[in-house]
Amino acid sequence: QYILAIETSCDETAVAIVKNETELITNVVASQIESHKRFGGVVPEIASRHHIEQITITLEEALEDAGMTLDDMDAITVTEGPGLVGALLVGVNAAKSIAFAKQKPLVGVHHIAGHIYANRLEKEFEFPLLSLVVSGGHTELVLMREHGSFEIIGETRDDAAGEAYDKVARTLKLPYPGGPEIDRLAQEGEETIDFPRAWLEEASYDFSFSGLKSAVINRLHKAKQRGEYLKPEDVAASFQASVVDVLSTKAFLAAEAYGVKQIIVAGGVAANKGLRAALKEKFQDSKAELLIPPLELCTDNAAMIAAAGAVAYNQGHRAEWGLNANPGLDLELFGSRKK
Ligand code: ATP
Ligand code: MG
Ligand code: FE
């Protein structure tokens, strides 16, 4: 069984093919980072236009790389949401056109289900499992008791982890996207500043990063006023220490409380060296097995959409020809929706 997937929710145009749910055949990603860099973030209108230019080229490249044609596909899957509406629309319309022209089943996929399922391209899932989702727009602890079912047991009350990285990076005048830049600096610095950790209420699995973001901004401001020099490496290391401490501790506590067999990390921030190292240490003696995707499957790609889409397809999910981009698509509702 061959599943084609299209992903255009943000600033990468991506097409992938997965065989029998878990075997990656091809994974083509056309990134627009260079076009957005000078604006310090993703400009939605520019993103949409790039997707329109890139979608056909990316699709052809994926098919060529796989040595396959659209006729070989069993289903066409596409990111339906969440994301930027104009960007999503390009992928959704491309997928609908292909599915209609080739009379193939069409399946809409939740972007975060995709980030989670990126892990299944590496290792088979064992339930119950807990996923720590840390991306540009989401920070959640998601409990899965079976394939395609998602229960959010904790989530951010303000900024997402990736968003906090990008905002702090901007204050440090680092180029976009800031996450990898801060990660790189943090490796060279030391935790010299004691930034706050938002633990929230006892036993809460929710997160909050806006207070930390403000603390960093205020500290930099104060240093400037006093003419004090703070090494950017140390600011990065101190900020990262706070984020990583909260993420890894809450993931560990939740994994223990729910007695999960696996803890899997998902989303762009899963590429973070500090987070990867902290989780490895935390879960070293835990019964839960830790899965972290390879770097290329952490940030946006279509392989993860194919992996989640294949499961949705095999569970009976089908989209109608009226499928629309849904920028606010809910993960739990997506999981409970079957035909
Ligand atoms: P979402 O998936 O929530 O819709 P998104 O698709 O924009 O958001 P991803 O592509 O999953 O997000 O991840 C991008 C985010 O990951 C950015 O905020 C980026 O700064 C962050 N990121 C990437 N690499 C690293 C890293 N090494 N350390 C920290 N953050 C990182
Ligand atoms: Mg991106
Ligand atoms: Fe993403």
From TrEMBL:
Record's catalysed reaction(s): L-threonylcarbamoyladenylate + adenosine(37) in tRNA = N(6)-L-threonylcarbamoyladenosine(37) in tRNA + AMP + H(+)
Gene3D superfamilies: 3.30.420.40
Localization of this protein: Cytoplasm
GO terms under biological process: tRNA threonylcarbamoyladenosine modification
Pfam families: TsaD
Highest taxon of source: Bacteria
Co-factor remark: Binds 1 Fe(2+) ion per subunit.
InterPro entries linked: ATPase_NBD (IPR043129), Gcp-like_dom (IPR000905), KAE1/TsaD (IPR017861), TsaD (IPR022450)
Any one GO molecular-function label of the UniProt entry: iron ion binding
Domain Gcp-like: 24-306
Principal location class: cytoplasm
Cofactor entry: Fe(2+)
Residue sites binding substrate per the record: 133-137, 166, 179, 183, 272
Gene Ontology cellular component terms for the protein in this record: cytoplasm
Enzyme Commission number(s) from the entry: 2.3.1.234
Binding site for Fe cation: 111, 115, 300
Keyword entries, A-Z: Acyltransferase, Cytoplasm, Iron, Metal-binding, Transferase, tRNA processing
Annotated family: Belongs to the KAE1 / TsaD family.
Function according to Swiss-Prot or TrEMBL: Required for the formation of a threonylcarbamoyl group on adenosine at position 37 (t(6)A37) in tRNAs that read codons beginning with adenine. Is involved in the transfer of the threonylcarbamoyl moiety of threonylcarbamoyl-AMP (TC-AMP) to the N6 group of A37, together with TsaE and TsaB. TsaD likely plays a direct catalytic role in this reaction.
Name of protein: tRNA N6-adenosine threonylcarbamoyltransferase
Organism from which the protein derives: Halobacillus karajensis
